[in-house]
From TrEMBL:
Biological source species: Aromia moschata
Keyword annotations: ATP-binding, Cytoplasm, Cytoskeleton, Motor protein, Nucleotide-binding
Pfam families given in the database record: Kinesin
Superkingdom as given in the UniProt entry: Eukaryota
Cellular localisation: Cytoplasm, Cytoskeleton
Membership in a protein family: Belongs to the TRAFAC class myosin-kinesin ATPase superfamily. Kinesin family.
GO MF annotations, alphabetized: ATP binding; microtubule binding; microtubule motor activity
Entry's Gene Ontology BP terms: microtubule-based movement; mitotic cell cycle
Annotated positions binding ATP: G97, Q98, T99, G100, T101, G102, K103, T104
GO cellular component: microtubule
SMART domains, A to Z: KISc
Name of the protein: Kinesin motor domain-containing protein
Domain Kinesin motor span(s) in chain numbering: 14-169
Length: 169
């Protein structure tokens, strides 16, 4: 990753891969389907049960189980990327998976219910909560007169105070 100044980022991993296992839907349960995903949290491995056999293990950076809350997911997956973006680094989060696996639920979620919001609305809240603390000034200095262009009054001049202790000789 590179920041806006072109410096390279010295983080541990530039690409991290997470897996989120969604709960079976009511319909899937009613049809007699059962969970075929076996999670090994210690080593972050997933094994699938297929025709009574187990597939080879698939390794991830972290496994999110069906009970994982949206905010927990956000804190682990998106929070560090958004923090880095606020420092000027580029970052990307994308959801990949077959239809019905929970990409929309994870990325968008339910906007009406705060705890069900997904990564996108939580990212906006995160960014706006940070930038609301920033202070932005937009000044014009012209003929030794200073004007605050965000004051709403373009004719209002700011007072210039001279500090003799730091004035250059
Ligand atoms: N972690 C979860 N907890 C509870 N319900 C979930 C979860 N993930 C997905 N679901 C539900 O499973 C269903 C399918 O999820 P979703 O629509 O997000 O899948 P998708 O991958 O975006 O599908 P498509 O590719 O077809 O758009 C939805 O009803 C969603 O609410």
């Amino acid at each position: 990753m590179e920041n806006l100044n072109g410096d390279s980022q010295s983080s541990q991993e530039n690409v991290r891969v997470f897996i989120r296992v969604r709960p079976l839907s009511k319909k899937e349960v009613a049809e007699g389907n059962e969970n075929i995903v076996i999670c090994d949290h210690k080593d972050n491995l997933i094994v699938l049960k297929k025709n009574g056999e187990h597939t080879k293990p698939f390794k991830f950076d972290h496994i999110f189980v069906p009970t994982t809350a949206q905010l927990e997911m956000y804190r682990m997956v998106a929070f560090p990327i958004v923090e880095k973006a606020l420092e000027g680094y580029n970052g990307t989060i994308f959801a990949y998976g077959q239809t019905g696996t929970g990409k929309t639920y994870t990325m968008a979620g339910n906007h009406q219910v705060p705890e069900l919001k997904g990564i996108i609305p939580n990212t906006f809240s995160h960014i706006f909560s940070q930038i609301s603390r920033w202070q932005l000034t937009y000044l014009e200095i012209y003929n030794e007169e200073v004007r605050d262009l965000l004051s709403g009054d373009p004719n209002k001049k700011l007072a210039i105070r001279e500090r003799k202790d730091i004035a250059s000789t």
